[in-house]
Specification:
alpha+beta; eight-stranded mixed β-sheet; binds zinc ion; 43% helix; 28 helices
Length: 863
Amino acid sequence: MPGENLTRDEAHERAGLIRVDGYEVELDLRSAVRLDEPAFRSVTTVRFGCARPGESTFVDLIAPSVETVTLNGRELDPAEVFDGARITLDDLAATNELTVDARCAYSRTGEGLHRFADPEDGEVYLYTQYEPADSRRVFANFEQPDLKAPFTLTVTAPATWTVLGNGEQEGAAEPVGTDAATWRFVTTEPMSTYITAVVAGPYHVERDEYTREFTDGTRLRVPLGALCRRSLAKHFDADDIFTVTKQGLDFFHDHFDYPYPWGKYDQAFVPEYNIGAMENPGLVTFREEFVFRGKVTQSSYESRANVILHEMAHMWFGDLVTPKWWDDLWLKESFADFMGAFSQVEATRFTGGWITFANRRKAWAYRADQLPSTHPVTADIHDLQDAKLNFDGITYAKGASVLKQLVAYVGRDAFLEGSRRYFKRHAFGNTRLEDLLSVLAETSGRDMAAWSRAWLQTAGVNSLTPEALYDDAHGRIAELAVLQGASEDHPTLRPHRVAIGLYRRGASGALERYARAEADVAGERTVITELAGAERPELILVNDEDLTYCKVRFDETSLDTLRDHLGDLADPMARALVWSALWNLTRDGLLPAREYLGMLLRFAGRESDIGVLQMLHSWAHVALDHYAAPDWRSEGARLVAEGALRELRAAEPGSGHQLAWARFFASVAGSAEDLRLLSGLLDGGSVVDGLDVDQELRWAFLEPLVAEGVAGEAEVAAELARDDTASGKRHQVRCLAARPSAEVKAAAWHDVVETDTLSNALVEATIAGFAQPGQRELLAPYAPRYFEAIADVWASRSIEIGMAVVRGLFPEFQAHPGTLDAADAWLAGHADALAALRRLVAEGRDDLARALRAQECDAQAGA
Ligand SMILES: [Zn+2]
């Protein structure tokens, strides 16, 4: 579509020409309940100034049709001015009024105004999702973050619905005819288009409120709302959501010194949501999988709290003060990610938040930072497609890790004082990197330019390795140094503020820290003078306490100690860091996958942190499916399944650990005996003491049975009859696509690649079922077909679906040089393809090349 992919240059030029004074948006959503009705009416009136009268600009709108366009009282012919993505506006006046009356489409891909019909009760639910640029699918606007304006929203919808916007409702809904009503909302403070929002449908709503007295005697009252589909209401624990919400609001008011600026605070849990959540001011949307239908571990509650707090931090950082363009996306995402963990640890019951951050969040960053697509935290974002792919591990997790390192560098007080000044100085405005650095330089007195060059403006992750020399006479440390490394592609060495811990086993057998030093590491080799003379350690842990962002390496002695005593390491943060370091060694082909899995089977049963344990389970899958040498894979799978069953039986009845092991066991079960146990757990013939096989767990047990051909269509149909819900439907689709037959694979491929009828959620479910690691031969024919199909898929589908298909169907299980060659040939033959598509293919190729290197390392261990 011409003009759909707005560029930075175009946005810059438009921001120089116009100033937006306000929008009035009227949506008529009465047609939503008629599922064969594809569109709704959207009328926008926008008032805007023009710095150079007589010139032209354009307004963004992606819509099937436009009825009328009126500019300053002139009727423009839609056929002439509208090209499907933009409306051209010529001969502007100094002040302008534009009205666009359009028919906009209901979305099935989660982009724009998504429509979902609940299979359980037939109710229809709507919500919007816009970032980075999909509000133009719902109303005509200037779709770029630095053209902020106040919004006045009016919605007409079925009278029985709940309708919400960013602002509070103004007065009662007014009846329209017999069965509809019109809701009006107060005019908002100025905000960017991508964070405007509408939620409408027969949602279940719970209410509460947050109040706070300030020292000057003023009082803030924030009405709170929490919403989900009616059919999920029985599972909705709004109390816990409100508890975390209030704890977060307290924390941010304590530290930001800027009252919550958006009036009310609603949090809607919505169906078929593409991402975790979105920080729309006053109306945050979340994926409804955060409403737990079955038993989950504390790690899931922790994740949900983290997301609630991440989005809340955005109310200030992102919504109140907004990056000028998507280059500085990190300004809001890194900050929100850091603040999510920071506030969680200090204000909620989830005091282990930094462990999760070190182990889980940083793993995302390390992976992203070693892909060919890595980029500096401050990115170069040419257009909207680039922007879409930059919601990645660098922008979020590395950026947040770098902020954590910054707090260690400038101190917590200077960091928070810098934030306070930043909010006051730029409230309701847009900023760039320099604006943040200048307040931090003021409050810390440090040279932020050098820090920024090292950490924000260069890509790549350093490795830190300890090197100890011992005084033979006493066995004490003569000299302890930290060696810093970097990859050839990204050779920057950086200043790191690190803690170094020395550990040895005490009388109890526990591996404990007995000496620690904090130091600035810079350059290739840094001597840690504070630790000279310390007694000989069994384990040296650099980056103890996880202050910096690096790959931790070990010396030989330390690695030997871990092989035998990892489980004796008493401190949970130290263990999390060690697990992460071992995983990086495995990924880098420096530790054989079978050795990593061996340590995991030996020590994971002693891991007390449930989030770390679940991370280990997912790493075990990657190690087994991708990094194990092919001729050892089935033996490895047998050992892992045996180990998982052993831990499942040993876990405390009814505990989260038991649940995590049960899920893991099901995901690796392969032998006839394993599968009989799963069947038994489903039909009640077998029992694991304390394990409640609820509906979600039933699906988790059924999928491997289907993938192995032990269960089939009839069993899946019976399960859907037990669980005839939206969630059950997704599980059903996934299970059916997992069946081990060529016809099933062909049908799944057809449904996802060759037709456009499935919703985003069902595309995802189909892909998840299709791509089974145990079905390598069945999937082999789809490697060439993948490379034939993706250019057309990218051109013809929405970017969200395009990303799901190109990522999800990459032939990751065809790990041989031929697949690398095919990827290379595709890249060579598609030099002109959009950068975003090339990036996804290059990432898939890189993962595969890494897998082949790791397999080689593993094969040598078996030789
Ligand atoms: Zn965010």
